[in-house]
Write a structure and sequence with these properties.
heterodimer, A: about 210 residues, alpha/beta, Rossmann fold, 8-stranded mixed β-sheet, B: about 350 residues, TIM Barrel, two-stranded antiparallel ribbon, globular
């Protein structure tokens, strides 16, 4: 397990900026990239997530301990594949038909979206997390460990070491981590599943998973 | 020239033309829903409500796909109320046509038109009018640029990828005092910066979660406007609500209605059905303004003062609300809530 000090975020929309705000709140270094030049989001980062540094997605990949993907899922093939090689990558993206169009156009059918992202980034270590809690709940609900009201975040990934690192990160960002399986199980967290949007305690989340 | 926005508190109502429930329990027809909105706007005008904003949708639960048509009807029967769209989906429309329609509305209403441009929270209009979602950003980017030029009401020369070029094209009718133009944004920081870059005022759609989290967005707007050398206009907000005679009655009546409306949208986006607990959290801490006049007024005043916004638009008929309850809500909003919010904000300022 490695210790995360610098979190990279690709995507400076609602989710990306919210993650940057929460990460800065807990004292992490944050690098963030939007869809265009770094200058386009520099002011946004400065005002909404003070201390977060705007840069290109290549630089985010190079200069961060983990990289969280918070861009529209339909655009994942535009990610800087080489720069992300060997990196721990957290996939927080979801298929959303209104933005992404037909699912078959962007993903092989039946394959969990995070598995498709892993296939596209074969040398990266992809873990799914931060996808099922809505961005406003992420902002409103992060709490210190031990709070009885603390909410849980489901995590899916294929390597124990990565899961440990991301579990610790989830905990440090204010949520109880719950590993639910590998990337091939990660469709249990996708839109349409009972866990999607779940903003509940670890017992509540376990119960939802049991009901599947 | 685009007009300046008055620096006073401003209270509006907002509807998407939801099909309402009639006294006999049946849903209104689309035609009835449209006439209902016109009657409600007339009532709001007599009560001194500052604006009625009508949103453009292309979905079966809403009757309004052409807000400015309904607003034109309202215009001829009202005197003071501002006539707004909330929003006009500019990405899938033609900026020249949008300008022409709203300049027309502005003319017949004696300068009461307000166009609120946006990308919309739904995207049905894209396939309907032959646009590709892949061009989502580009369409809005280009069209807002063109619209900004059109507002100068001088011949326009423009070239882009999303519509035919214009060469010194003059557009009519001209307005008497400029067309009030806003941008409606839903929490995308980039949209805020873009509105500030063009010098447009913004209305924030705050429809879920703690409204306080939008405070830095107001700051972002002000900072960005300054950076671009534009005026930082007062910011507005829009949120859903339900007002009844008591808190209990409001909660009891609103829950099934909000649940029905939210679950309908949620189904297509993969959300789970809304629980009572989620609903109550929104009522207590979030962005639903539900309760008696006093409760709703306090909550509106709190949000406006915390965020530093000067305009509040209440989405009043969300879901299949009873037509009689909608009318009552408008009466409570105009007679009790608005005066009380003004009072609370004035006390606050002291």
């Amino acid at each position: 397990m490695s210790d995360v000090k610098t979190i990279g975020i690709v995507g400076a929309g609602k989710l990306g900026i919210t993650l940057a705000r929460v990460a800065r709140h807990y004292g992490f270094n944050v690098n963030i990239a939007g869809s265009g030049n770094a200058s386009k989001i520099a002011l946004t980062a400065e005002v909404l997530a003070p201390g977060a540094v705007a840069m290109s997605s290549e630089d985010v990949a190079k200069h961060s301990d983990v990289v969280i993907l918070a861009l529209p899922l339909g655009k994942f093939r535009m990610l800087p594949k080489e720069a992300l090689a060997g990196k721990l990558v957290v996939d927080a993206m979801n298929y959303w038909w209104e933005v992404d169009g037909s699912r078959d156009d962007i993903l092989p059918s039946e394959q969990p979206s995070s598995a498709a992202v892993q296939e596209f980034l074969p040398i990266s270590h992809v873990v799914k997390a931060f996808n099922h809690i809505g961005y406003h709940d992420l902002f409103d609900e992060h709490k210190l460990r031990g709070d009885p009201e603390r909410k849980a975040m489901a995590i899916a990934g294929d390597r124990d070491d990565d899961l440990k690192t991301i579990s610790k990160l989830v905990d440090q960002l204010g949520f109880d981590p719950l590993v639910i399986g590998g990337l091939l199980d990660s469709n249990r967290l996708e839109p349409g599943m009972n866990t999607f949007g779940a903003n509940t305690t670890i017992e509540g989340l376990r119960e939802l998973l049991d009901q599947q | 020239m685009a007009k300046k926005v008055d620096n006073q508190y401003f209270f509006g109502l907002d509807s998407f033309g939801d099909l309402a429930t009639k006294d006999n329990g049946e849903l209104t027809t689309y035609a009835e829903a449209l006439r209902l909105v016109v009657d409600e706007a007339i009532l709001a005008d007599t009560l001194g409500v500052d604006s009625i904003a009508l949103g453009e949708h292309h979905r079966e639960e809403y009757a309004i796909s052409s807000p400015e048509m309904v607003l034109a009807g309202i215009a001829t029967k009202t005197t003071n109320i501002k006539l707004a769209s909330g929003v006009t989906v500019l990405s899938s429309d033609d900026p020249v046509r949008v300008f022409e329609r709203f300049a027309t509305l502005d003319g017949i209403s004696n300068g009461r038109a307000q166009v609120i441009l946006g990308r919309g929270s739904f995207t049905e209009s894209f396939p309907l009018f032959g646009y590709d979602m892949q061009d989502y950003e580009l369409l809005f980017e280009e069209k807002i640029e063109l619209f900004h030029k059109l507002l100068k009401e001088k011949p326009v020369t423009w070239e882009g990828k999303t519509r035919a070029a214009l060469d010194n094209a003059d557009v009519f009718p001209k307005t008497e005092n400029g067309l009030h133009t806003y941008v409606g944004v839903g929490g995308s920081p980039n949209s805020i910066v873009r509105a500030a870059a063009y010098g447009f005022p913004v209305v924030l759609a705050i429809i879920g979660g703690n409204p306080d989290r939008f405070k830095p967005y107001v700051e972002l707007y002000q900072r960005a406007a300054k950076e671009f050398g534009n005026e930082a206009h007062p910011v507005g907000m829009h949120s859903p609500g339900y007002i009844a005679d008591t808190d209990e009655q409001a909660v009891e009546e609103a829950f099934p209605l909000f649940k029905e409306a939210m679950d309908k949208v949620g189904k297509t986006r993969g959300w789970q059905p809304m629980t009572k607990q989620h609903f109550m959290n929104e009522v207590k801490f979030g962005s639903m303004y539900i309760g008696s006049s006093e409760t709703v007024a306090k909550k509106i005043a709190r949000s406006m003062s915390r965020l530093g916004v000067n305009r509040f638009d209440l989405v009043y008929g969300f879901g299949p609300v009873k037509a009689s309850a909608r009318r009552h809500m408008i009466e409570l909003y105009g007679k009790e809530v608005i005066p009380r919010v003004r009072e609370l904000l004035t006390e606050d300022a002291k």
